[in-house]
Specification:
Alpha/beta knot, globular, Helicase, Ruva Protein, domain 3, about 10% strand, alpha/beta, 2 domains, 10 helices
């Protein structure tokens, strides 16, 4: 089904779409095609398996070249999310993490509210075969799950992006009925970016390593994920993080005395 009309004004912007370790150039191209259909234009790639740029991606994009040309490449998920303050991670299975889980429709309404309030936001998609690693999911604020046939729920990467992007596009003409996230009502204080959060996490975890809290070693990864999820549920602002950094500095100073 084709309906391209280059005389019309293009719809652009929206949340960034982040693909973590996508496997095939063709899949990236089909994602770009799905994005542009829905007015999403910012594509970020974390270690695409077959390298970048990709001729296969261009062929599969069916004219969505602008999305591919503007795509940015990152070494890690944390770097790809660094400037964002609100991230939705797509998942098809329970993760054992205490995070809100929403449908694409609700996510679209929340994203519209967040972006209108000045936040930078993103949608996180994992590798085609395995989905996102738990450490990547732990960096997100909210989980996004597509309600489908429980006996057969099988989406390829471009399908998943298209479903979420379609709901984003449709939400443009509606007033978001969801209650805005708490951080949008924080007295005008800017929300912390993922880079700022990760910097705090690493400082806190270093102190906890020094004190032996993250012990034994085999339990450390799960404990770290739980701590990161705990602080992300707080939706901290810049001021919140300054206070938390002060607490970490005080704890480190007390330990050294």
């Amino acid at each position: 089904m084709a309906g391209t009309n280059k005389t019309q004004d293009a719809v652009t912007g929206g949340p960034a779409v982040i693909l973590v370790e996508p496997q095939l150039g063709e899949n990236i191209g089909m994602v770009a095609r799905a994005m542009l259909n829905c007015g999403l234009t910012e594509l970020r790639l974390v270690q695409p398996r077959d390298g970048w740029p990709s001729e296969a991606a261009v062929s599969a994009a069916s004219g969505a070249d602008a999305v591919l040309e503007g795509a940015r490449l990152y070494d890690t998920t944390a770097e790809a999310l660094a400037d964002l303050s609100r991230v939705y991670a797509t998942t098809a299975r329970p993760r054992g993490m205490t995070k809100p889980v929403v449908t694409p429709r609700r996510a679209a309404a929340e994203l519209r509210a967040a972006i209108m309030a000045g936040e930078r936001a993103g949608l996180l998609f994992g590798p085609e075969r395995s989905g996102l690693a738990n450490d990547d999911v732990a960096l997100a604020d909210t989980l996004l799950a597509v309600p489908l046939n429980p006996a057969f729920a099988s989406l390829n990467l471009a399908m998943a992006v298209l479903i979420v992007g379609y709901e984003w596009f449709q939400a443009a003409g509606e007033t978001a009925r969801e209650t805005p996230p708490r951080r949008l009502e924080s007295g005008g204080q800017p929300p912390a970016t993922k880079a700022e959060l990760i910097n705090f996490f690493e400082r806190l975890e270093a102190v906890l390593d020094e004190t032996g809290f993250l012990h034994p070693p085999e339990k450390r990864p799960g404990m770290v994920r739980n701590l990161r999820n705990l602080f992300q549920r707080m939706a901290p602002t810049d001021q919140d993080l300054r206070t938390l950094h002060g607490i970490v500095s005080a704890l480190r100073g007390a330990k050294q005395r």
